Amino acid sequence: MKRFKLLSIIVLITGILYGCKKDEPVNVNKELLNVMEEYYLWYNEMPTVDPNSYPSPVELLDALTYKELDRWSYITTKQELEAYYQNAEYVGYGIGLGFDAQNQLRITFIFEDSPMRAIGVDRGWRVSAINGNTPTISNINNLLAQSSALFTFIDLEEQSHTQNFSKKVVQMNTVLMDTVYTTASAKVGYFVLKGFVGPTVDELTETFSSFIMDGVTELIVDLRYNGGGAISTAEHLASLIAGKIAAGSVLGKYVHNDKQTSRDESFLISNHSYALPLNRVVFITTENSASASELLINGLFPHMEVSLVGSRTYGKPVGMYAFTSPSFDWAFVPICFRVLNANDEGDYYDGIPVNIPAADNINYPFGDLRESSLAAAMSLLDGSKAKLDVTSTQSVSYPTRKGLKGEIGAW
Questions:
Q1: Helix, strand, or coil here: 219?
Q2: Does pTM surpass 0.90?
Q3: Among 86, 303, 322, 351, which one is least packed by beta carbons within 10 Å?
């Protein structure tokens, strides 16, 4: 029999057997159907299909998914999956993108390894043209589909820069920035977290070690572009945030379909050596804050005061396993379980609402106290939130993609 390995996208399990008899050619579509019938959260909503009538497992998965709720199940290659989740690598330009209120495309963030760093590209720069075309929400995917493109940027000083860039293997730094603010009453730690992948653990440990040395007693976690990742990494962050007051408490619970109830279990908050002395935390969120980001927020609700500023999160209260085989390069990544907190709260398919609405001002750099979302978070901590314009809402439209590219959330 062919052995399927379940990679750690959100949680690691091993030892699952599927497939054909020894030396029998592998029918990839049949293997996908086997996985879906056993592990898919909504297997009882799947239509009856002939797996051999689909040209590839990609089309078969699309036919099988429960469209009413499932926006996330996907298929990719093992190489792409492992590069991202284990090494924080992907092929692209190393940037985030968003359209402002005037429908102008701007850089929302940039990784240190981006080839565009060489000319100084930074958050807030406008992309006025790609290969001579004005980017729009409807054509951006096509404009960036090729391996290289000619970009025209307008920087924050209104200077123009035109240069051709090629996609490369980008090494993500998932902590995009961190700093400490000194207020009249406390030291406030602030950091921007892009994802929950392998190297994130060391980045977070380094950040919180610095916060401990600086005497931080209040915390703002900026998850506005964080599309999620591994639950084990979210557990690590939860332990750094709440380990002093909630060690040993349930952060979340896996709830599977009725064929896989033996896999239902809880995962816990631990007391990390660099856990901060916190009783409350503020998160900055947008519609790009998804999956493990939402799990973290929802999981901390029962244990401490949790506030959100920005805009409502994406709404993905479910998790996935990745099924791979040595017999082919596909990786099947279907939704396999719900995630609840210690109070059995979850199912936030419409997202988690914020306490204070605030815009994502992409014309300001991260950490600038004039930026609306950060200003709202700081004012909430110092009790001055009544001074804010609470009618301020997000004015940025974010280009969307599906599958692993959507999880990566960068170009």
A1: strand
A2: yes
A3: 86
